[in-house]
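Entries read sequence, tokenised fold; example below:

***
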Amino acid sequence: MRIKKPIIRLTRGCLLLLAVTLCAGATGERVSASSQSTRPNVVWFVVDDMSANFSCYGEKLIRTPNVDRLAREGVRFSRAFVTAPVCSPSRSAMMTGMYQTSINVHNHRSGRGELKIRLPEGVAPAPLLFKQAGYYTAIGGPLVKGTNRLAKTDYNFEWDEKMYDGNDWAGRKAGQPFFMQVQLHGGKYRHNKNWKQRALSELGSATKPEDVTLPPYYPRDPVLLDDWAQYLDTARYTDKEVGEVVARLEKEGILDQTIIIFMTDHGISHAREKQFLYDGGIHVPFIVRGPGVPRGVVRDDLIEHIDMAAISLGLAGLDIPSRMEGRNVFAKNYAPRAAVFSARDRCDETVERLRGVRTERYKYIRNFYPLRPHLQPNAYKDAKEIVRRLRDLHAQGKLPALTEKLLFAPTRAEEELYDLQADPHETRNLAADPKFKKTLVEMRERLNRWMEQTNDHGRQVEAAAMFDSDMAAYLKEGAGGREEYQRILRGNIAQMKKWAAEGK
């Protein structure tokens, strides 16, 4: 009878014991060529628009055996968080190992017009660092398979496409280590018109909407239930895609020579998740498997997605740039974080500024535009069927009181404080509760220090010239028969400028 190895769960106090068991390549120290004849390959799975809805993370309605396998054979981080809850700033931070606010790439899809953003001296994208170390660098995935195109990048800074050698590691020289990003469409699949039919064909079954459990701040409306069921099927499909890549690594005999990191770029795209700093938007799956990584371990310490670059360089025995803010959480000298930080700024045309800090127990969020509603107008988000449905129910007066309060109040509190143990869905703001005054002050000061120490560029209002430059690019992209989109976008841009002039 085969005995399964028990899952080991590590708390902060156990991490020093773990660290001493790791090989030299996992310390973050450079390993010389003479002591390491071949470096490990590195594969990043980066998934769009998906929270930790995998069975190894406790999701009960679906099974995800391939992602579960990575967790079983590596380290699963239960408390991993992105520093930005939307694609481009999250990916810009991920690629550089830097907070997006530290390097001025915090506004979503910024630097796309005439005015550009360049990385500061001493900051370089991870693929470039691997390429300089002799790695073959690739970025691909199912959406570009069979083409010469690169997969999704979505960086807010200027970069040279030559830092990628191709979209598949098959192009490497014999014996050459590779750094590969596998970009998966994830939660975005459900926005494709034929997704339901494709999911049924590929997966053999579909998740039933009536079986879905929604967060308590959403009504059990058929449109929302169906959308969430489709989303869970995108998680199943993502698991299938992961399995195909792992099977290829096995077939080529290089699986155990390859460091694999699986994560998503932010949480599920919904009304209170993507683009916001609640855990639904920033908590992500994060799994590491490969040489130098313990097997069957669950770690509960707080980590940030910007750690991915430092982890990869460290496990590969390469130098980690001294300026990099991400940390190699497997290094011997790793000191666990007491808190993680996140920020949301302008998303498309919608001007916003949120800052958040999260400890094991508490979440503090600061709203810099409290006179604006939670669901500000946004052409991208307002086109989603779920948001249209919520707005329709609001207009009809049919939403539950909690949904009305959290999504449709005309203004917001300047500060939000949540006890995550007692209120994991972050529905009861304790900022005005005298019993939590001490905690409020501590969290407020912690955020202030972080903003100061990391030189948060978002402390300053975005220059009008940069906003206009990016909006011109947006309007150009919306041209060509998309008159309604252009009309909505122009109206939203005008609304942003009007609110700014009014001091909102």
User: Anything to note?
Assistant: The mean pLDDT is 93. The first strand starts at residue 8 and ends at 10. Residues 124 and 386 are 38 Å apart (CA to CA).
